[in-house]
Amino acid sequence: LQAQRALGPALDKATGTLLYNAASRLKDQRHLSFLVGYIARKQILTDLQLGAALDYLKSHPLEPLDAADFEQACGVGVCVTPEQIEEAVEAVISKHRAELLAERYHFNMGLLMGEARSRLRWADGKTVKNEVDLQVLHLLGPKTEADLEKKPKTAKARPVQVEKQKVAVVENGEAGTETRSLLEQLRGEALKFHKPGENYKTEGYVVTPNTMALLKQHLAITGGQVRTRFPPEPNGILHIGHAKAINFNFGYAKANSGVCFLRYDDTNPEKEEEKYFTAIRDMVEWLGYQPYAVTHASDYFDQLYTWALELIRRGQAYVCHQKVEEIKGHNPPPSPWRDRPVEESLLLFEDMRKGKFGEGEATLRMKLVMEDGKMDPVAYRVKFTPHHRTGDKWCIYPTYDYTHCLCDSIEHITHSLCTKEFQARRSSYFWLCNALDVYCPVQWEYGRLNLLYTVVSKRKIIRLVETGAVRDWDDPRLFTLTALRRRGFPPEAINNFCARVGVTVAQATMEPHLLEACVREVLNEQAPRAMAVLEPLKVTITNFPAPKAFDVLVPNFPADESRGFHKVPFHPTVYIEETDFREEMDKGYKRLAPGQPVGLRHAGYVIAVQNIIKNASGRVMELEVTCTKSDVADKPKAFIHWVSEPLVCEVRLYERLFLHKNPEDPAEVPGGFLSDVNPDSLRVVDNALVDRSVLSARPFTKFQFERLGYFSVDPDSTERKLVFNRTVTLKEDPGKA
């Protein structure tokens, strides 16, 4: 209508297209009339000018706009003459004259266009192209047959495969072990996120008259630094899903030379325990990250209370007496106390603080409707539970909906990174900061990371512990981070797994074997080799080649002997796996049997069965064998591992804790997740044997037991007996795919 009043009923096509694009691309409709005026008056004539205008309006959200500054930014009134275009194209062609004459029409003409347009920003693109074509034709003449031939493709040199570069993780996420791939993803993500101080450029961000002044103060405090935070509740142990959150928050800060806070959301004193605070920080540091600062929501209780009073004074919050049951669900009845006088709510809120209301008798609620339709979320509730840090100073505690955004504001967080389920709280996040006229960060959401064949809910893990299905939160069959560490998963493998999952907005549900593959990759490089026998069979060498036992040098990493050796004693008595011997050979069987010798790994000898000794029930108890040096014996079909003068140890072999992919899904497991526990998820080998090279190993030290898998020393180990957890097998079990 505005354009028709200026131009009459007949709009030309070019102007109509500009108007349509302006209306559809302009996010802040308050500036639409201003922009339409320039198009209608033919002061903005091209899509290039329109793009510049939209960028300007996005960067200047507040009224009044500086018209002169706007016009300069959009090229209003700038007239580029044909002579200027001719001179600019001539200068560009002169610069590339030698290449043009050499390559003729195979030269990249787009380069000429780009350079010419950069010299004359507001020139008409078609006119520039015509001038480039004309001057090139004048220089080169008409195309010849050679010019019309397709340029032969040059074979691309295949990149040499190298190991993924590692970078060290330092303080604030600037040094430990982390593959570059995650950092590259997060740097890429930075292109989609706003720059510090440019929060207003984010779609949906609410701009108030105070926004620009608050952002200016924010930049003065932070110096334009990226700030993120990882805000766990200290009421349970972190799990594999939290690993993605840790990597995303700390990793994004690291990738953009910023800092990340570890902030405990300790607003529910009933469920918080000191052990959880300690375990959370331990796991963050175990994954290779050092927080910029460790803070608590409770650090800000006084400020949060002061702001709650201010919210009431501004008419944006009220004290309500509806019961919890009444306000649950999607369509609860509106509160009859929503419009109570401000002074009355102030007095009642003070009574709440003084303990004059029982639990559930009064709450402070905020006057807003959230995206999911939830009306007037609770800001404060009464709880007569001493707080682990503030003691009995408070009997009212703030909720997540009230606390989260305000703590972000206090700490001047630039990017509040949350999982997707918090998207419904984004508008309330903006609303509360703006209602109090405080700095408002930007909330960004990403997809959760879930794993099949497990449960991570705190309540369900507690049930597993109570029923004896697992020992504790760090039982190696669980997917809490403490459990994965105890099982022997290296932190680098977990970080690499998060990188492979990617920085996605969609929820990712992954198979455990993909995580295990990352573990194998890391342990193959990190875990020194040793030999262990789980089901020993005694073997006596009747022609032992020396008068007494001697040591054999075994490489720590057979593929790279420069990484050192360890000694293993070699005696006339050795022990092999029961499964490495058969009295009768099947087709394809390559290990030890009568008439079929095998080599002993690293010993330099081949053994052949001479005599089989059995007990009364016919079970093979011992083999008597002869040995021959490998360099004179026929090459055996196989080499097997062995131990001699070994240590007795306990080995724990783990399988999946649950039988079905989704143990919490009633359709898949009608009897509930407890009914789905795998009875064979743990097998304990009490008297396994391991070579003496592991004698001094401390808890969490990792080894590859040759031909068996990767193992880690369990904290249950004593000076008298080591305990090993099998971390993963050497190869993926095809049945797990």
What secondary-structure arrangement, pairings included, does this model have?
Layout: H1 2-7, H2 13-25, H3 32-40, H4 47-59, H5 67-74, H6 82-95, H7 97-103, H8 109-119, H9 125-140, H10 145-148, E1 166-169, E2 175-179, H11 180-192, H12 211-222, E3 227-230, H13 240-255, E4 259-264, H14 274-286, E5 293-296, H15 301-313, E6 317-320, H16 342-353, E7 363-366, E8 378-382, E9 396-398, H17 400-410, E10 415-419, H18 426-435, E11 442-446, E12 449-451, H19 458-466, H20 481-487, H21 491-501, E13 508-510, H22 512-526, E14 529-530, E15 532-533, E16 536-541, E17 550-555, E18 565-570, E19 573-577, E20 598-600, E21 605-614, E22 620-629, E23 639-640, E24 647-654, E25 682-690, E26 702-705, E27 709-713, E28 722-728
Parallel strand pairs: 3-4, 4-5, 10-11, 12-13, 14-26, 16-22, 20-23, 24-28
Antiparallel strand pairs: 1-2, 6-7, 7-8, 8-9, 15-25, 16-19, 17-18, 20-21, 21-22, 24-25, 26-27, 27-28
Helix pairs in contact: 2-3, 4-5, 6-8, 6-9, 8-9, 11-13, 13-21, 17-18, 21-22
